[in-house]
Amino acid sequence: MSRIYLARHGETEWNALGRLQGHTDVPLNEVGRTQASELATRLANEGIQGVTTSDLGRARETGAIIAEALGVVDPLVDRELRERRFGIFEGLTREECATQHPAAWKAWVEQTDPPEGAEPVRDAITRMMRAIARASERASTGPLLVVSHGGLMRLWLQDALGTTLPLIKNGAVYLVETDTRREVSEPSSALRVSRWGA
Fold this sequence. Notes:
- With 198 residues, the protein is of the alpha/beta class.
- It has 8 helices and 6 strands; from the N terminus they run βααβαβαααβαβαβ.
- 41% of the residues lie in helices and 15% in strands.
- It has a 6-stranded mixed sheet, sandwiched between helices.
- Helix 3 links the parallel strand 2 (50-53) and strand 3 (76-77).
């Protein structure tokens, strides 16, 4: 059984303002850097052997802060851990989405259709599944920290758990335990997922 600590990156200014980021590469703010340092402290006794992050700066910086604090060298980057693309909603608050694109926002809220230019739900879940499978292989030699993004994590976790989750807060962590003898592409049989350190 391998152990993956799946964390959302620290806060950015767009997070603080409630703006959807998607692929827009917004850096951590000072609150986010503090959150990363606090997360490193919380993880200090978990035996983390490696760090893998999304290629977006907010996740890479979160991972780098934690890796340095834990003495983990050479964090890896996995592009498939990056946030879901939000298309015409990127850079907007939820209120602005509803005002500027009312039909698209209604479809988004009702989960019937992604906005123009957004990544389809199943595509996002599938690539996250591949990234978790790779992380699981790495974690076979010891616990691994994976730093990703709230939207992508929520989609994948809901699919894996078969339930609806609230929005995932900056710095939140889920423990993903994978049975390395079975296929991670079959979440119900290969994974155990739980909120960690809540």
